[in-house]
Amino acid sequence: MRPSVVSTGSAARFAERARARRTIARRQVLGVGGGVVGIAAVGWLLFVSPVLALDPHDLTVTGAGTVVAVDQVAAVVAARANTPLPRLDTVGLRDAVLEVPGVREARVTRHWPHGIVVELVAREPVAAVPETALADAAAPAAGFALLDMDGVQVGRVDAAPAGLPVVDVPVGDKHALAAVLSVLEALPADLLAEVGQVSAQTQDTVTMQLRDGAKVEWGSAQQAPLKIAVLQALRKAPSSAGAHVYDVSAPTLPVTR
Question: With contact defined as beta carbons under 8 Å apart, do 115 and 81 qualify?
């Protein structure tokens, strides 16, 4: 038994096949059109509509430390308010955040659906340098510049902070200053807290004055780990614990007096 929908005549069968092909073609066109419309709708939703727009109030900033002004970071983010997150240029935003004073490194990530997380590495001051050692001798300043480990100025104060070592180097001697900062960077936190002043006439004559009155003749910035170990051992040894001078400039032949 043949189905009643199938025609028995040749002309009728050809007509039915043509109609079937047209129906399939229409369905394909409708399918493609629907797919295009769907993709366009998703694209509009992600890249144009406010559904995923950046809300500057949905901002998390970490690692600002004592130097970076969080409100300045927030202002950089606010300049990109209402930008859809999928279209937000996080690399460009990171570059803009790096321009904020005191920022050493930055990482920017999207926090769906509307937020941004900015993780900072701040330039923390490690030394106070008299501005007379940095400024033009014709126009000396009276305060102190606060420098980080890279020698970048991150602040200024009129009086040396109690918790930072004061650096004494010849005016404009970048090599001596770099040697001092390198030594300070190498010191462990507990030893760094004991340092009250650091001086260097050259990059090979770094000397530290500890807060208990002891003097440490360090020499150059080389062999820092060995010098630290030797100094800590000498400070703990009963025979040298009360010394006034610790000379570790030649760490394999240290001298105390």
Answer: no
Q: How many residues does the chain have?
A: 257
d(CA 163, CA 180): 17
Name which of 142, 138, 144, 185 is nearest 167 in CA terms: 144
| 256: CB partners within 8 A, 6+ apart | 234, 240, 243, 245, 246, 247
Whether 179 and 204 have beta carbons less than 8 Å apart is answered as yes
Please, are residues 56 and 88 in contact by the beta-carbon 8 Å criterion? no
Among 122-131, 140-149, 155-164, 224-233, the range of highest mean pLDDT: 224-233
Alpha carbon separation from 45 to 53, 84, 172, 186, 237 (Å, rounded): 10, 9, 58, 52, 71
- Which residues lie closer than 8 Å to 117 by C-beta, 6 or more apart? 59, 60, 62, 108, 109, 110, 111
85-116 pLDDT tens trace: 989 999 999 999 999 999 999 999 999 999 99
pLDDT for the residue 137: 46
Nearest residue to 210 (alpha-carbon basis) of 227, 221, 197:
197
Q: How far is CA 133 from CA 64, 89, 140, 199, in A?
A: 28, 42, 8, 12
pLDDT, one tens digit per residue, over 153-168 is 888 889 988 889 999 9
Burial of 153 (0-12, 13-18, 19+ CB in 10 A): middle
